[in-house]
Amino acid sequence: MADKAVTIRTRKFMTNRLLSRKQFIIDVLHPGRANVSKAELKEKLSSLYEVKDPNAIFVFKFRTHFGGGKSTGFGLIYDSVESAKKYEPKYRLIRKFKCICDSRVASISLREDGEGNMFFANATDAATEKLWSKKVRGVKKTKAGDAAKKK
Known about the structure:
Layout lengths: L6 E10 L4 E9 L8 H11 L8 E8 L5 E9 L2 H7 L2 H8 L12 E3 L5 E3 L2 H12 L5 H11 L1
Antiparallel strand pairs: 1-2, 2-4, 3-4, 5-6
């Protein structure tokens, strides 16, 4: 499925120096495919715009047009990961770096090991993430409830 051709076009491209980023609208043409994964889009955008760190790329708000074959969304390329952490909303950082922040913490405090993996810098964030990951949401609730009843 990933072997089908995908064309990426950007429009309304602008460099936002105040927020240290480039922002644009992405048009993705994907005939014969349901959609294109965000990871694949980030990979193509990083090669297209010669981005050193793919963690500085954020793509979101994608909508597939009626009839399929075309999707439109937004893209942001930050100058560095630090500026992304400074200006991006917390919910997008949580999605990107798979972390949950305590509401008492003013900013997300993450540290990076030498291999590019992100970790929590303090115990409060790590404990909150552990509690939130145990919480069952969505369709899994019925399955989790059935398993508890059988015991």
